[in-house]
UniProtKB/TrEMBL annotation:
UniProt feature, compositional bias: Polar residues: 382-401
UniProt cross-references to PANTHER family, sorted A to Z: ALPHA/BETA-HYDROLASES SUPERFAMILY PROTEIN (PTHR48202), ALPHA_BETA-HYDROLASES SUPERFAMILY PROTEIN (PTHR48202:SF1)
InterPro entries the UniProt entry points to: AB_hydrolase_fold (IPR029058), ARM-like (IPR011989)
Start and end residues of each stretch annotated as Disordered: 357-401
The protein's name in its UniProt record: Protein SERAC1
Length: 674
């Protein structure tokens, strides 16, 4: 098909993809044809790929609204989660409308103003569909709005983020978008640079137009040139952010068997994921993208290896691989630190017992017995390719680097951030140990520390090798101004499910936490014990608490009048001093420590932290976690001199007590328990 023919057919093809009465064969064929169009015409096909994404988002929104309406009519105690769902839907509706408008504007700018028929405007049939019909009807044909590659890319970025948020915890939604061809879009976003090429084309066209401009003489007789097409005004599209969120959505979908089959069969895509995870692909130097790429490979090839071994060993297929065979599943909330290291792709020998349960054989593994005398589950599979079954697949997709089984890590270290923190920014290196500047309260951990630094990946991986390092992500708003966030119990429940699915807790694990992250871990272990998920409890051998409010925080004890300004999130209310829940959680950890099942290291801040910055340099400051709350009453305590709450987990150097004491603690635990 020519470009013009492809544009004319795009409306029909998308109708076949999303048609309620389309058969699987028709939908698959239409998806394949659209993929070929995107591959053939790259930047010129952006209105089609963007229209595909907008239609996908609108279709999912319709289903989500119906589901949310049904749930709202039933009694439901989880009001906060319902509020978050409603907020996400409202936000996604706005983004879907913006994305539809972006499709129309870009099409108008690319194809001109003759929009009356398909003969003069090939995309007319596509834009006659919903959700484009309204914006297309209102398009000012004689005065098109200024719209460039950066505007289009920004709309796509918002669309892919919204789609990810809506489908992140909804398996029905995930299966639906997989059927509607989202993998074709994700492959395009990850492996190609359509928006960068479009921006380059715009810059080239602008420079040529500038060269052909006639000089204009103003009244004063001086000459000037009209700069409306100045190439220096061309903006850079946010393609790196698009790639990051596309990689996140791919990780979420990679646990679906139908998705795994598609990616395993695509050698080019598999090779790109391996190159990206290893940091060898331009545009993949972002630590989150690298982690997503490795997690996707682990999710896919672990199941693929089990399937291959099942066939080779004549193990009956029960059809429920994830439930009956212990294959780790890495979610988007779990980031792998330094995913390029060999141990993330080191294969293990997989064996099956007589009933089809998977056993992994690993030398030098030491099992730790639980108080009840039960041995912990053996280490989970970390293989990203099948060992020995397909050497060519391993060589072409995963490189030749290998490691011996004796080097498989026997310890996991998991980092958990606190309020307004993040999986990487919380663990930066400090510029100084006392915050001297702060924005509003929501910026409390946004600017602290050196940008682009990450001491667990830069220092700890070198000083404490042969260890799997993870860092977790969860929403933790300090106030309601930035949206609702889940209460402590819901956050912990969600993370517990993800950790267990990833196999974290099947071997010794140490949690390193900051602020509320410590309470999240305590609640998670408490809930794991109540739900008989004893592996995680029995194998947690240590916890590091940086400024954890074991008995409450002064931030939550502010006068109620301040609440009118701050509008504290539900999580903050749970941090009030003397909270019975906090006391109960602390007693639970104290009991484990007393029985010798885990060790505890606590750090305490000594300086006030700026909370709200005012005019003239004035700032409201407070000691967020005093020493009487930072020390749980057991374990070791390190008092950090001249250090505030934000910087308690941000060391200045390797000799800083906030790093050195943690490193020594980890070495002691590894020697004692592994």
């Amino acid at each position: 098909l020519s470009l013009e023919e492809s544009q004319k057919w795009s409306g029909i093809l998308l109708h076949w993809v999303f048609g309620k009465f389309s058969s699987d064969t028709i939908r698959s064929s239409a998806t394949n044809i659209l993929s070929c169009i995107l591959e053939d015409y790259g930047p010129s096909s952006i209105p089609i790929s963007q229209g595909w994404l907008a239609t996908l988002l609108s279709d999912i929104l319709g289903s989500s609204k119906t589901t949310l309406t049904k749930e709202s009519t039933q009694p439901k105690s989880d009001k906060v989660k319902t509020k978050i769902d409603q907020t996400n839907i409202l936000s996604t509706v706005q983004i879907a409308n913006q994305l539809a408008g972006a499709v129309v504007n870009l099409a108008g700018n690319q194809l001109g103003t003759a929009t009356d028929s398909a003969d003069t405007f090939p995309l007319a049939d596509l834009l006659a569909l919903e959700p484009f019909a309204g914006p297309f009807k209102n398009l000012k044909k004689d005065n098109l709005p200024k719209f460039d590659a950066a505007d289009s890319a920004l709309a796509t970025l918002k669309g892919i983020k919204a789609l990810t948020e809506v489908c992140a915890e909804d398996s029905l939604c995930q299966n639906k978008i997989a059927d509607f061809g989202v993998l074709c879009l994700l492959r395009r976003f990850l492996l190609r640079d359509d928006y960068e090429h479009l921006a380059a084309n715009e810059a080239y066209d602008a420079s040529r137009a500038l060269e052909s401009q006639e000089w204009v003489t103003d009244v004063s007789g001086k000459t000037s040139v009209v700069d409306s097409n100045d190439p220096s005004s061309v903006r850079v599209p946010p393609t790196a952010h698009i790639r990051r969120h596309a990689a996140r959505l791919l990780t979420i979908l990679s646990v679906l068997p139908k998705v795994q089959k598609v990616i395993v069969a695509d050698e080019t895509w598999c090779k790109w994921l391996e190159e990206c995870a290893s940091g060898r692909t331009p545009g993949c130097h972002d630590v989150k993208i690298q982690s997503y790429a490795r997690a996707t490979l682990l999710n896919i090839f672990c199941n693929d290896q089990i399937d291959r071994n099942s066939v080779n060993d004549n193990v009956p297929d029960t059809g429920v691989v994830n439930q009956t065979r212990a294959c780790p599943r890495y979610a988007d909330m779990i980031f792998l630190i330094n995913p390029e290291l060999p141990h993330w792709k080191c294969p293990e020998k997989i064996d099956f017992d007589s009933v089809g349960r998977m056993r992994t054989k690993k030398p030098n593994s030491v099992n730790r017995s639980s108080p009840d005398g039960d041995d912990s589950v053996e280490s989970e599979v970390r293989s990203s390719t099948s060992a020995g079954n397909d050497e060519s697949l391993s060589d072409s997709m995963h490189g030749s680097e290998s490691c011996s089984l004796s080097k498989v890590p026997s310890l996991d270290v998991v980092f958990v951030h606190g309020l307004r923190g993040g999986p990487f920014k919380t663990w930066r290196l400090a510029e100084d140990k006392e915050s001297t500047k702060s924005g509003l309260v929501e910026k409390i951990d946004e600017e602290a520390g050196k940008q682009g630094t990450f001491w667990p990946g830069e220092w700890l991986s070198a000083d404490f090798p042969h260890t799997r390092l993870f860092t977790l992500k969860y929403k933790s708003n300090l106030t309601q101004w930035s949206g609702a966030s889940l209460p402590l119990q819901e956050v912990s429940s969600m993370l517990l499910e993800k950790l267990v699915a990833a196999g974290i807790g099947n071997q010794p694990v140490v949690f390193v936490t900051h602020s509320m992250g410590g309470l999240v871990v305590k609640q998670m272990l408490y809930q794991a014990k109540a739900e008989n998920k004893t592996n995680l409890v029995n194998n947690t051998i240590g916890i590091v608490f940086y400024s954890c409010p074991h008995f409450g925080s002064k931030l939550a004890d502010m006068p109620w009048r301040m609440g009118l300004v701050f509008r504290p999130a539900p999580t903050i209310g749970e941090l009030r001093s003397g909270s019975p829940k906090l006391v109960e959680l602390n007693d639970f950890i104290r009991h484990l420590h007393k029985k010798g099942l885990l060790e505890v290291l606590s750090f305490c801040e000594t300086k006030v932290t700026p909370i709200v910055e005012g005019y003239g340099g004035w700032a409201f400051r407070m000691e967020i976690v005093p020493i009487e709350s930072a020390y749980p009453g057991f374990g070791e305590l390190v008092v950090l001199e001249s250090t505030d709450h934000i910087n308690s987990c941000k060391p200045l150097s390797r000799t800083d007590p906030s790093y050195k004491e943690t490193l020594d603690f980890l070495h002691k635990l590894k020697a004692q328990f592994t």
